[in-house]
Amino acid sequence: MRPVAIVTGGSSNIGWACVRRLAPDHRVLIADRRAPSEAMPEGAAHLPLDITDAAACREVFARARAEGEVDVVVHSAAITEPARPLEQIDPDEWRRVIEVNLNGAFFVAQAAIPALRASRGALVMIASRAARVGYAALSPSPAGTKPHYCASKAGVLSLVKSLAVELAPDGVRVNAVVPGSIEGAMIPRERWPEMAARIPLGRLGVADEVADAVAFLCSPQARYITGHALDVNGGTWMN
Amino acid sequence: MTDTTALYGNGPERLPQSDPSGGCRRLQGRIALLTAAARGIGFASALRLAGEGATVWITDRDPAALEQARALAGQVGITLSTETMDSSDPAEVAARIAAIVARAGGIDILVNNAGGSLHTPYRFLEETDADWKVVLDLNLMGAVWASRAVLPAMIARGGGRIVNFGSKAGRFGSLIAGANYAAAKGAIASLTRQMAQEFGPHGITVNCICPGVVMTERTRGLWAQRRTPEERERVLQDIPMRRHCEVQDVAASVAFLASDDASFITGVTLDVNGGQGMA
Questions:
Q1: For residue range B8-50, what is the model confidence (pLDDT) as tens digits?
Q2: Do B241 and A221 touch (CB under 8 A)?
Q3: CB contact under 8 A, A225 and B245
Q4: Which in A18, A23, A24, B193 has the greatest CB count within 10 A?
């Protein structure tokens, strides 16, 4: 029986690329509020999930464990908001971004722990270059930044380190993939050329390249890598 | 159905030890050059790259070790081409790599593996200028000289991969090697970032791997000599994964960075340290 992989936010963009990358050797469960708009790969299934609902997260993992050993968890679900000056951000908007991106990551991680301990599996969380350098540094814009998005993703990076330390003695590895500018819905297409000019490799990345990094960190190739944040950004920010 | 136990999960016991490819086949048609690769991490990486289909050249200053490496590789059906080369001698690096490039017809993947603390003192105040020079020459300048020799051919081919070796020592300090070694490895990370920026437009990615302590013959001696049994046990307990790094752990990361799976990754420092240091 194929092991089970759970991909939150698996219906679109990077999450969808991870679903396709893992599908050949996993029963992939797409935990997302919406179902994918394209045909799912063979063996994949959609489970509706709002990651801000802790009980629902636990339920999804219970259902997944009934289908097999869950040895890979990819947490990709996140939201963003338009850039605007910090002064103009409504507290409710701030709370919503933190609730989905940071609290949601906590709810997913907490629900995933029993399954991962049982499989000695791997968890990868998708962060963002915004966590490293903020938003203004990437795309100078007089309109403002996305402080809630940046702060939430920096929180995810920190959460990954805590989880890595806690779970390593049980053989569970936890890492982050940190995408830079990736072609897709989060960046308007008209901005791609100007952004590509600032990237040493001369182009934006594609979601499949992020999925390749995720697959690496989930595989035994990375069996001694934990607590690491792997940048996939074409050289725009180097640590 | 594919047996996936070898592909996913973490337990080393689930790894196909007899298969140097690690179950992947990503490097067919590529030509790889690894420096100082007759033993340890370099040799394991050479086996891994060859196992994944690359044509592999290794250098070492010790011809007997090269011969032994070639014979060992042959036992698992892998052919390695060898060239005697002292990575700390710039003229020799230039001449030998030029010869390899000519015979191989180009290089797609360069792994700057040459390095080590060369039994220089651990204590900063005991290190002489000569101790600094030999360690910087081998660890830092060796990578500079080899890259200089390979890059024109790599640019001409329209792209390539350079994998440098930093170290946990260069990022978080070392318990067994001195300041000269830590500084050289820190410089490798800076070199990596600058080269990534400069050669990105040529389609060349440049990354570095920072392993934790790998218990090779050399480090095992230093570890026993420079740390008490109590200290050694405490350090092991401080590593979240509760074990030291193995050469195969590192070889798998070399193969990843050399493969198309890492095509948008450049300028990174990849920590392979079991969580001992998290940047």
A1: 333 332 333 467 888 889 999 999 999 999 999 999 999 999 9
A2: no
A3: no
A4: A18
- Decide: B20 and B74 in contact? Cβ < 8 Å: no
Taking CA atoms, what residue in A is nearest to B4?
A25
Contacts of A232 in chain B (CB under 8 A): 264-265
Q: For residue B91, what are the contacts with CB-CB under 8 A and spacing of at least 6?
A: none
Confidence band, pLDDT 50/70/90 cuts, at residue A144: confident
CA distances from B245 to A109, A177, A222, B242 (A): 27, 22, 11, 10
N- to C-terminal Cα separation, chain B: 39
Q: In what order do the strands lie in the sheet with B160-165?
A: B80-84, B55-60, B31-34, B109-112, B160-165, B204-211, B269-272
Q: Distance (Å, rounded) from C-alpha B91 to C-alpha A133?
A: 42
On whether any CB of chain A is under 8 Å from the CB of B15, the answer is: yes
Mean pLDDT by 10 residues, chain B (279 residues): 31 46 91 97 96 98 96 95 98 98 97 96 97 98 98 96 96 93 98 98 98 84 87 91 95 98 98 95
- Which residue among B181, B191, B204, B250 is the active-site one? B181
Beta bridge partners of A47: A31
- Per-residue DSSP letters for B58-126? EEES-HHHHHHHHHHHHHTT--EEEEE--TT-HHHHHHHHHHHHHHHT--SEEEE-----TT--SSGGG
**A positions 29-68 inside 8 Å of B (CB):** none
Beta bridge pairs of residue B60: B84
Residues A5-31: tens digit of each pLDDT: 999 999 999 999 999 999 999 999 999
d(CA B80, CA B54): 10
The answer to whether the CB atoms of B10 and A220 lie below 8 A apart is yes
Among candidate residues A71, A132, A149, A214, the one labeled active-site is: A149
Under 8 Å between Cβ of B34 and B49: yes
- Which of A42, A156, A163, A224 best probes binding to B when mutated, by most B CB atoms within 10 angstroms? A224
Q: Which residues of A touch B205 (CB under 8 A)?
A: 201, 235
CA distance B171 to chain A (A): 11
B240 closest CB neighbour out of A201, A226, A234: A226
The 3-state DSSP class for residue B267 equals coil
Answer whether B51 touches A (CB < 8 Å): no
Give pLDDT tens digits for B104-132.
Answer: 999 999 999 999 999 999 999 999 999 99
Could you report the predicted ipTM of this complex, rounded to two decimals? 0.91
